[in-house]
Amino acid sequence: MIGAFTFNTSQRIVFENGAAAKLADHAAEFLGNRPFLVTDPGIVSLGLHSGCETSLVDKGHTLGCYSDVVADPPQKLIDDAVSAAGEHGATSIIGFGGGSSLDVAKLVALLLGSGEDLDDAWGIGNAKGPRLPLILIPTTAGTGSEVTPISIITVGEDEKRGVVSPLLLPDLAVLDPLLTLGLPAHVTAATGVDAMVHAIEAYASKSANNNPVSRTLAVEALKLLGANIEQAVFEPADEQARGGMLLGSMLAGMAFANSPVAAVHALAYPIGGTFHVPHGLSNALVLPHVLEFNNAVAAKTYAELAPVLFPDLIDVSDVENRADAFAKRLGGLTQKLGLQTKLSEVGISAEDLPKMAADAMKQTRLLVNNPRDLTETDAFNIYKAAL
User: Fold this and answer.
1) CA angle 50–54–57, rounded 5-degree value
2) How many angstroms from the chain centroid is the CA of residue 291?
3) 59: CB partners within 8 A, 6+ apart
4) How many CB atoms lie within 10 A of CB 116?
5) How far apart are CA 37 and CA 174, in angstroms?
6) Dmax of the chain from CA atoms?
7) Residues 241, 232 contacting (CB under 8 angstroms)
8) Which of 7, 159, 291, 363 satisfies CB 3.0 to 4.6 Å to 327 for a cystine?
9) Per residue in 165-219, pLDDT tens?
10) Is 137 helix (H, G, I), strand (E, B) or coil?
11) What is d(CA 262, CA 198) in angstroms, rounded to the nearest whole number?
12) Pairing mode, if any, of strands 150-155 and 172-175?
């Protein structure tokens, strides 16, 4: 029997090579006359936004821009971006870039549209709205932020805190594979593994809202990601591979937006927040070790996914052995893609582990979704295994 569930996603999705350069047409009903772009300095220096900008200006829109987004954006950055958009008189918000830019754009649209205080919106379902019209354009294939109702911000020195609300789903998500052609290999690899984690955790989530739609999307996401990640990393100009990665990332985003992620992300956040390790790499560093921990209760689930990513694992008939091989092969894949595989390789020492374990336990909204209950001691031991 299929239990009750809800499934939300972005109102409209456009997938097309060159779509960003046609934004004025694709987003005509949402833009208003004073759209406002939220992006980062890297995007601006590369000129990736130029086609989008030209499209808007040529159609008579007065475009404003905030381009100071950084990885793990702090709360003050949100305040600055909201102020800049308000001074522009923004009629819509366009997030353009990686997950951080999209996350900032979501909150700018919400806070400027509603006038509410960010401190009142933290958590699940606390945002009131309304928000300004919102368009999201990813330039990495990893976060799936263009189809998720989540924005993650760094509060204080290193605490990750989230706003989770359907209000953060955009009116339009524009997926243009050409925007990802210039991604460096290590970014392609890390964001690609991040998308895989989204699919794996969504499929195995203990959430009451784990549902057949999310699980189906997770499987399709893993098929696309597994088939294309090596080609995208080692042959970066391959448009087909780039498109497969972008679509896989989006499907994984749809999956975990409704069947939420769990302990991999919970343990990754202290790595990123404290040591400023990119989010995708933070996930990759703990992924095989969390799966090995979860295998005590979730081996059957992981055994179902294993042949999707690694087809030859279908020959491993024993469920426990196949699940164990799945975790090990994922660790091997990250190494093959050129990513670091040990915490010590990103500057983390044994002395750091107790605080990291304590910080991970603050991620209660994630830990409740993990297939196996996890204590602070468990978190410490997982980090130790990853050291």
Assistant:
1) 135
2) 19
3) 24, 25, 28
4) 17
5) 14
6) 63
7) yes
8) 291
9) 999 999 999 999 999 998 899 999 999 999 999 999 999 999 999 999 999 999 9
10) strand
11) 9
12) unpaired
Q: Are 167 and 153 in contact (CB under 8 A)?
A: no
pTM of the model: 0.95
Give me 238's structure tokens.
Answer: 């391959």
- Report the C-alpha gap between 17 and 289 in whole angstroms: 37
At 355, the amino acid letter reads: K
The answer, yes or no, to whether residue 240 has pLDDT greater than 90, is yes
* pLDDT tens string 206-221: 999 999 999 999 999 9
Burial 335-350 (b: 16+ CB within 10 A, else e): eebebbbebeeeebee
Q: How far apart are CA 9 and CA 254, in angstroms?
A: 6
Return d(Cα 369, Cα 259) in angstroms, integer.
9
Answer whether 18's CB lies under 8 Å from 176's CB.
yes
The first and second tokens of residue 328, run together, are 């090990």
Task: Evaluate if residue 1 carries a pLDDT over 80.
Answer: no
d(CA 207, CA 3): 12
Cβ neighbors of 234 (< 8 A, separation 6 or more) are 185
Percent with pLDDT over 90 in the chain: 93
Owner of token pair 């006359």: 33
- Residues 6 or more apart whose Cβ sits within 8 Å of residue 197: 261, 264, 265, 283, 284, 287
Lowest mean pLDDT of 47-51, 296-300, 325-329, name the range.
47-51
pLDDT at 71: 86
DSSP annotation string for 74-132: BHHHHHHHHHHHHHHT-SEEEEEESHHHHHHHHHHHHHHHH---HHHH-EES-------
Distances (CA, A) of 312 to 68, 190, 215: 45, 24, 21
Which region holds residue 72: left if phi is over 0, alpha if psi is between -120 and 50, else beta? left
Q: What are phi and psi of 182, to 5 degrees?
A: -90, 5
- Contact between 123 and 174 under an 8 Å Cβ cutoff? The reply is no
3-state secondary structure of 138: strand
What stretch of H or E contains 10?
Answer: none
Location of structure tokens 């597994």: 226
